[in-house]
Each structure stands twice: as structure tokens, then as C-alpha cells.
Amino acid sequence: MVALAAADGEAAPARFVAFLSMTMDEAARFVDSVAEQLPDEVSRPVAPGAELRIAYYGGVARLAYRETLVTATAAADDLGALASLKHLVAYNIRAFLGDAADITWQGDGCETGELPQFREMRVVSAVDLTPRMRRVRLTGSDLGRFAAGGLHVRLLFPPQGRRPVWPCADRSGIPAWPEGEDRLTARTYTIRSIDLGAATVDIDVVLHEGSSPGSDWARTAEPGSIVGMMGPGGGELAPAERYLLAGDETALPAIARMLESLPVDAAGTAMIEVQDAAEIQALAHPAGFEIVWLDRGGRAAGTTDLLQAAVTSLAWPGEPGSFVYVAGELAAFKAIRDHCRKVWRLKRSAHLVGAYWRRGRRDDDPAASGDAG
């Protein structure tokens, strides 16, 4: 499930708008199920006729119901953001009603099968930053939308030896993925940096032991090879007076980009778990930040409680003005999320804790996980 945020205030009319309406026997329960994902400040249950407003990817989605009729509107200034909003609403409908739910949008962006949040990219270069971190530089056209609205993208790896068949839009707003011999493998990564003038993005990839789709791609990436990219979305920090940023090496690219993008007077702590000292990178950061490296001493990722112990041992302030971002393996994510909510008693709007990976899992379904953009 993707993270949601409540919309704040009224905005100027958006350039692009799409809408849908459909009947549901449990319309109220559906809208409330979406409201449960929003920050604690959102009133629930949602009253009939009241508008549930969701800010996402630079646009706003609105949900409402009366009796058995559910209406939804998506509005944004960018067609890619509009497509992501439609996907978000449709994803929640399918999660509630099942895959057979008949979802049909009308309005802007519905007349084409192209996905405006998709780009075909080509490899420019690939270099090792550390023994286990490799940077792949990609180039593509019209990359402006990837400079804001989220840190993460989904890279789509086509089958070897076949001409890529990319996902397309359907009337539901959920991308239709190629199947069979054209089936794609998807993985979610952070855009470590983007240069709009040069039309390039840098993706830092952890080189795991053994074979995995992302690691294999990064190890063998050659100039001119093709990969798909969808997004952006997820991972943005809320304004705060003090930050805690923590994660293992899979979160390192996101934490590094966050540190570079924060105001010069920002303050906080960044805790980064790595396999050994050879994986420590020089990170640009505001002077008010403390950088703490957690060295596993050569032990494999996901086999220790190093990150969990370091984070939960902090006397982190729970008062307004603080924000916590943590990402890593699933077991650590669960323990740290529980600590944030039950011990530090942070509101949902004051922390963003996510699982970037799960030890032992090999899931190649492009539609199964990761960012929804």
C-alpha cells in the first residue's frame, strides 16, 4: 500500500481532471478504509456527502459517497501526476472489491494508452562507488517531472534478448503489464541525483550476494542498454525542526539525497547500517546533522538487530517539530514502526517508516510491490 497524505487548504484549479462514479454496497466502509490510511488529524468516520481529500504526487484526489454511490475526482497540473492519482484510487477500489471491479475513468488522459509517468531510458555508464554499491547513470527525454514529487522510481527490466514491451494505460487507471515472454521485472530505487540539463538520472544499486534482478542488471549494465522507468513517488520528508533518518544500505541513496536537499540550518541524526567499513561513503549534509555509521562487521544484511537497537535506544523527542524516516528490511521495519507509534507515540504525519526489502524473498512480479507511480 502506498503512503497517503491529507490535502492542506484550497489550491488553484488544476490543468487536468478525471472522474469516476460507481455503486458499492458498502460505500461508507470503503471511504472509511481509505481515510484510515491518512494522518491522524483526518476526521473519521467520513460522513455521507463529505469530501475526503488526498494530496498525492503533486495533485489532489477527492472521494465522497452517498448511500451506495461513490464518486472520485483526480486533479493535477501534470498528466503523470494525474495518472498516479487515478492509479491510487483504483488500487484502493480493487483492494476493497477485488480484481473484478469494473473501474472506468472519464476526462483528461483517458483517450490514450500511453502512460505519462513512464520513460524509456538508456544506460550511459556504470561505476562502483564501494565494493557493494554501483551507480548506473541513465538518460531519457522530458525528465522534468522526476525532479520533484517523490524520490523513488520503478525500474522495469525487459527479458533478455527480446524487444521491450512496456506497460500501457487502461480505463481503470491501473497500468496493464505485458505477460508471458514479454513479462517485465520491476524493482523500486531512489533517484540519487538528477541533472535536467544533461537529461540524466543516477541510480545507486546495492550489489547483493548471489543473483537478483536489480543486482544482476547493475553488474552487467552497458552503455546503450534499455530499461523502463516509472514514477516518481514516495520518500519525501515533511518540514520539521529536527530529523531522524535511519536505514540500511538499501536506504542509503535516499538518505544521502535527503541530506543534500535539506535546508542548511536543518538539524538531526542520520544512522546508516552497512556491511563493513568499506561501504562508508562521504555524505554532504547540513552542519547540524550527526552521521552515525553502524558496521555489521561483515555479517549479512537482515541477520542482525543493529539498526533496530540503535534507533530504539534513542530518547527521541515526541513533541511537535520532529520527523522520523526509517527504511530497511521487513523485520526491522515492523519493530521500529511499533516503537515510533507505541513508545514515542508519534502521529502518522510525524514518521515515515517503510520496508525496502524482505530477507529471503525473490518476487519478480512488476505489479506486486514497490511504489505505485
TrEMBL record:
Domain FAD-binding FR-type: 116-239
Record-level Gene Ontology MF annotations: oxidoreductase activity
Protein name (Swiss-Prot/TrEMBL): NADPH-dependent ferric siderophore reductase
Source organism of this protein record: Aurantimonas endophytica
UniProt-listed Gene3D superfamilies: Nucleotide-binding domain of ferredoxin-NADP reductase (FNR) module, Translation factors
Family membership noted in the UniProt record: Belongs to the SIP oxidoreductase family.
